[in-house]
């Protein structure tokens, strides 16, 4: 209340009366409270709070940082990874899950995108990971894909909860993902065929042209990967702390590997 300017020492105005009510546990076991504030101050003047919604979000972020809480919804447009809306935890489709579906989906998308050499392979890898994926075609077209949405397969009788790539993270929109893949007409045609197949039946989607994702990794490659990581560590150690462009590039390239590792540990159903 003090940080919002409604009540407390140092606000320079009469206090607004307010009450905090414990609502109790939600259906998923999340304890929470509601706060109600009278906008008429004790001296009879009206509390004028322009941009109160924006201000409340700023205060919420401050409180989350002060107490080490998980951010619920990030308003910082410079941050790619988004926070969580309160309602997302209420509507999680996996009973007993320790995180919302969007977090698991974000890691799955990031790992699949990083492992894929083109867009068609990305669609196929999402299918291999058991994710429901469907395209968003450009208006009036069925051959131009402008975006996508993904969802975990729901438990029995539960609804499908879809998440657009941009809702998972601002760097996981389809245009952003495409920046990491070759831009060739032939590759585009192959990707469109896979998108059409999953749009036709995302529940039983079968790849049009299976690719290298169906092959087992050659054990001999692990040593090469280990050597690559060693070189990356040496390179990162020499990057200056203020070289933001290079750090952003490194973060993007390594996030897919981190996501794949994390997914194996946390996203098993």
Describe this structure as you would to a colleague.
With 269 residues, the chain is of the alpha+beta class. The chain has two domains: 16-66, no CATH class; 96-266, no CATH class. Helix content is 41%, strand content 14%. It has nine helices and five strands. It has helices at residues 52-66, 86-90, 101-115, 119-128, 165-168, 174-178, 185-200, 221-237, 244-266; strands at 16-25, 31-41, 131-137, 145-152, 163-164. The strands form two sheets. Strands 3-4-5 form a three-stranded antiparallel β-sheet. Strands 1-2 form a two-stranded antiparallel sheet. α4 packs parallel to α7 (185-200). It is elongated, with a radius of gyration of 23 Å. It starts with 15 loop residues before the first strand and ends with a helix.
Q: Can you summarize this structure?
A:
This protein is an alpha+beta fold and 269 residues long. 41% of the residues lie in helices and 14% in strands.
Spatial extent as radius of gyration: 23 Å
Mean pLDDT reading: 81
Shape annotation: elongated
Q: Residue share in helices?
A: 40-55%
Secondary structural class: alpha+beta
Q: List the strand order in the largest sheet.
A: 3-4-5
Query: How would you spell out the order of helices and strands?
Result: EEHHHHEEEHHHHH
Low-confidence stretches: none
Q: Report the strand count.
A: 5
Largest sheet: 3 strands, antiparallel
Strand percent estimate: 5-15%
Number of helices: 9
| Total domains | 2
Distance between the termini: 42 Å
Domain MobA/VirD2-like nuclease: 9-69
Biased composition (Basic and acidic residues): 66-92
Organism: Clavibacter michiganensis subsp. insidiosus
Region (Disordered): 66-99
